[in-house]
Amino acid sequence: MARNIVARTKDYPQWYIDVIKAAELADYSPVRGCMVIRPNGYALWEAIQADLDVRFKETGHVNAYFPLLIPASFLAREAEHIEGFAMECAIVTHSKLQKGADGKLAPAGELEEPLVIRPTSETIIGSMYAKWIQSYRDLPVLINQWCNVMRWEMRTRLFLRTAEFLWQEGHTAHETADEAQRETLQMLDVYAAFAEEFLAIPVVKGAKTDAEKFPGAVTTYCIEALMQDGKALQAGTSHNLGQNFAKAFDIKFLGRDQKLAHAWTTSWGLSTRMIGATIMAHSDDEGLVLPPKAAPHVMAIVPIFKSPEEQAKVSAFITRLLVQLVGEAEVAAAAKRVGGEANASLARYFFDKQTNQSIVVDWRDNRPGDKQFHWEQRGLPFRVEVGPRDVDSSAFVLKKRLDRSKEVVQLGAGINADWLRGQLDAVQKAMFDKAKTFRDANIRTAASYDELKKMIAEQPGFVRCHFTPDRANEAKIKEETKATVRCIPFDYNGDKATAGKDIYTGAETSTQVLFAQSY
Amino acid sequence: MARNIVARTKDYPQWYIDVIKAAELADYSPVRGCMVIRPNGYALWEAIQADLDVRFKETGHVNAYFPLLIPASFLAREAEHIEGFAMECAIVTHSKLQKGADGKLAPAGELEEPLVIRPTSETIIGSMYAKWIQSYRDLPVLINQWCNVMRWEMRTRLFLRTAEFLWQEGHTAHETADEAQRETLQMLDVYAAFAEEFLAIPVVKGAKTDAEKFPGAVTTYCIEALMQDGKALQAGTSHNLGQNFAKAFDIKFLGRDQKLAHAWTTSWGLSTRMIGATIMAHSDDEGLVLPPKAAPHVMAIVPIFKSPEEQAKVSAFITRLLVQLVGEAEVAAAAKRVGGEANASLARYFFDKQTNQSIVVDWRDNRPGDKQFHWEQRGLPFRVEVGPRDVDSSAFVLKKRLDRSKEVVQLGAGINADWLRGQLDAVQKAMFDKAKTFRDANIRTAASYDELKKMIAEQPGFVRCHFTPDRANEAKIKEETKATVRCIPFDYNGDKATAGKDIYTGAETSTQVLFAQSY
Predict the structure, then answer these.
(1) Which residues are paired to B165 by β-bridges?
(2) Which residue in A37, A129, B120, B307 could disulfide with B65, CB within 3.0 to 4.6 Å?
(3) Any chain B CB within 8 A of the CB of A366?
(4) Which 3 state secondary structure label does DSSP give B192?
């Protein structure tokens, strides 16, 4: 088989692109900076959405939808906000296309005010909250939105940094500062639990420094993950916006004390970038490795046969296996359905209707080796091979994607849905443990700036140290090391703080941070 | 209670807006032509998405995501397509905002080519299919996309006609013309089944005339529904695009005969307009009436009490009722959750986790009459009232939204999830039957153009007649009657065709159509 994926050690950025290409997760589009999320990639987003949405609803949130276009003047109402976003906005200026004298189509119908494609929706949502919120009885407002946003980026990278991306943005309004802070931290916890439980990606929770916070926020909290190349990736952020946007948009309510007060708002977001994180956290030189909970197909079954007789024999055995794994009703239902992928000779059997996860049987007219390669590169947790000899011994070969191990399994009564669920859970746990072991091994502690520089230069990863956040010093360190403060972790601060010396200034400080180069 | 909804007979368009406002389904946004879909309205879209998405997946489709922005030149590649959309496009021309000499923000960073916010995605998707499809082995491609689109409309109407709206657009590519036609009709059937089974809206299936078809399609099929004011509403369309877009975007494949051929493509879409259809098909002068399958909350329970003792007594009884309806585990889980709506004193209990439907108990500090009014206007299938006297007789009052009937129900062992499901199914069926009776009563047959004119003028509705589709004649009839050919129904044509005379020209024709004024 031709190698179509470069080794991580050889060229990590190229490896990342190769993995995406081989698994058909995404593609470049004809529009600069915009990507196409192909069905295999979008299925991951659907899995992420489904899991997160339940967590949002269980914490009392509801979904809504606000306009894509925002009047340019709205962005300008919050000073930091416009500073942060003005330079990377897609601007709508016209309402039609007309043929000019040269026969070419040109914009026509100029708008009175330019409109900005939302880079984030604090402003447009704030303007609506001002209308909806009158009394403390109208609070809290707990709304989330699933949508597309645009930020014109100079250098783009599939999933990680694209002009348009998909995300969810929560926007809440509260009666008190305390309640807003509790909400901000609750949603950070939701993100952390989701990343660790669902995507098997261990994360560090903490606060951003002022230099790294969201434009317009009082405090930004984040979850930071470590990729296999030792670079950090910000995987979700939760912002306490204080009364900044409430003041900019006049979100006021009559309080219990009969006085008018500005609401306290928060916002929090997680995007398709998380797909990039999942790819980079777990995949190997053979291609994609998916955490079982997020895998659209949990298993691919590849039949091996040379004659119609062998095919019949193998097919009967696979049906037996399927009946044990998904039940007779689903086997019958699947027989009536078209294949779940482009090619109808891929038969799809739902293993879990609620999570939309399936087992696929690959009856395509290709060589078995090609099929194994195909599914391996797509990161399915398990592949099964069944040939005539396996049928004779009432067994099948189970291949585990994570460690590429092979095992002959007897098709006894114990091979059922619970067995498969157990196998999947074990892989899910092993993937988290593996990523966590790697992450923990890559958090080193520096006692001086020289040490920090040396560590970052020698081998990327997180570097923990005492440091007082400071815009000027952070800028200088970034210039010299390309590393930034990823976060001020909860684990080393607050009631866990210890006294120490700022590695840059030498001053006494109890603040500890994590530095790293990042995506 | 102050009347906040005008009667249908008095002012139908205002009634529609009043219903939406009272149920808090949507709101106008500060951006002209763009609406905000509020949580109550968005929950309907989520229900629609969930149900349709299963139908798409069961027919072998997968979801993907393509860019929001399309190069203007792409739209121009298909002549009819650009004609149809050029005059109502949002055009992106710049990539940032900069302060001018006057201190005001103005667009800067002009793009080389203007980009159009997708009004529909045949062109951008076609350009990708050209890249992905090489051989007949790559076919069929069966992709759907859930997204936002923009068409700058002159007159907007909440849900029915807004500049930005949400929809799904399926785009498929096939090896043969036959297969593409089968797909086109299959998706029309999916839409019809969805509208009738899920939203309880009876629809007529048929083809559009050339004058009314999608710009660039060979044939457009549609489902047409009748609203209570007798106007028709196009509720979903499925287009056989022939090889038009394949030729415009060079989607070619090497066939089984080793020759290069253009693929045959289809597209089909259904939008948030369907929420407008649902509102208009079923609601009454008291406000929204939701089909049970689409209702986010299937029941609201309103406690009545005057003292803490009465509250305790009523609360215990409601808990008993809830345990019987949703089970003890869910009652315990709900106790830990925040309220599902903005106000935490609204307790939400999941009745069906898979469909995300719940029962809400309204403990807010309002008068019971106000609460009844609140939930009535939100269209919940059932409301329950429980006061101390009801508890004494171990009963509750069940109010049915559809016919506004009241019934005293004993809380026996038979009051359980199955009982509620049965009640909901009965309402679902009754709503469909009611809408169908209305629809059928409003299809009249005209034998002459004078009859058609008279019928349309006297009382809106569908008018059936023999007519040969013809752009010029349709335009004249539209001018005189404001009615258009809604469709050429399958039910009166094909093998069900009968000979007759064209009501406009008097010529012999076997084609029968439905005329109506429409949304």
Answers:
(1) B149
(2) A37
(3) no
(4) helix
Residue B213 main-chain phi, psi, to 5 deg: -80, 165
Q: Which of residues 229-248 of B touch A (CB under 8 A)?
A: none
Note whether B516 and B489 are within 8 A (CB).
Answer: no
Distances (CA, A) of A393 to A361, A409, B67, B369, B480: 21, 10, 51, 72, 79
Chain B nearest-CA residue for A92: B92
Q: Are A287 and A376 in contact (CB under 8 A)?
A: yes
User: How do A164-174 and A264-271 pair as beta strands?
Assistant: antiparallel
* B242 DSSP 8-state letter: T
Minimum distance, in Å, between the CA of residue B143 and any CA atom of chain A:
8
Rounded Cα–Cα distance for residues B407 and B2 (Å): 26
Could you give the CA distance from residue A217 to residue A181 in angstroms, rounded to a whole number? 12
The DSSP output letter for B86 is G
Burial grade of A405 (CB within 10 A; 0-12, 13-18, 19 or more): exposed
Distance from CA of A343 to the nearest CA of B (A): 7
Which 3 state secondary structure label does DSSP give A466? strand
Residue closest to B410 by CA, chosen among B423, B420, B399, B397: B397
pLDDT above 50 (res A340):
no
DSSP per residue over A109-138, as a string? Answer: EEEEEEEEE-SS-HHHHHHHHHHH--BGGG
A 166-185 near B (Cβ less than 8 A)? 166
The reported pLDDT for the residue numbered B251 is: 98
pLDDT digits 0-9 by tens, B291-325: 999 999 999 999 999 999 999 999 999 999 999 99
Chain A 299-358, CB below 8 Å of chain B: which residues?
Answer: 337-344, 354, 356
Q: Which candidate, B202, B279, B293, B285, places its Cα nearest to that of B519?
A: B279
Tokens 């995506």, residue located: A519
DSSP state of A211: G
Instruction: Say how far residue A370 (Cα) sits from the centre of its chain.
Output: 30
Best residue in A92, A174, A336 to probe B by mutation, most B CBs within 10 Å?
A92
Total number of residues shown for chain B: 519
Write out the H or E segment, with its range, that includes residue A319: helix A308-326
Instruction: Answer yes or no: are the C-beta atoms of B428 and B293 closer than 8 Å.
Output: yes
Interface-testing mutation among B66, B87, B144, B256, with chain A (most A C-beta atoms within 10 A): B66
* Strand ranges, E, within A353-418: 357-362, 382-386, 395-400, 406-410
What's the rounded Cα separation, in Å, for the pair A305 and A327? 25
Q: What is the DSSP string of B458-514?
A: HS-SEEEEE----HHHHHHHHHHHS-EEEEEEGGGSGGG---EE-TTT--EE--EEE
Residue B366, judged by CB atoms within 10 A of its CB (0-12, 13-18, 19+), counts as middle
Stated as kind and residue range, the H or E segment containing A168 is strand A164-174
CB atoms within 10 A of CB A415: 17
Give me the phi and psi of A132, to 5 degrees please: -85, -30
For residue B158, give the nearest of B305, B348, B21 by alpha carbon. B21
How many beta-carbon pairs under 8 angstroms link A with B?
A: 240
pLDDT for B344 beyond 90: no
C-beta atoms surrounding B98 within 10 Å: 13
Contacts of residue A34, defined as CB under 8 A and 6 or more positions apart, other chains included, come to: A162, A163, A164, B67, B68, B69
pLDDT tier at B101, thresholds 50, 70, 90: confident
Query: How much is the pLDDT for B338?
Result: 58
Q: What is the mean pLDDT of residues B432-439?
A: 98
Neighbours of B470 (CB within 10 A): 17
The token duo for A60 is: 């009392």
Cis before A140? omega within 30: yes
Distance in angstroms (rounded) separating the CA atoms of residues B160 and A464: 56
**Smallest CA–CA separation between B376 and chain A, in Å?**
20
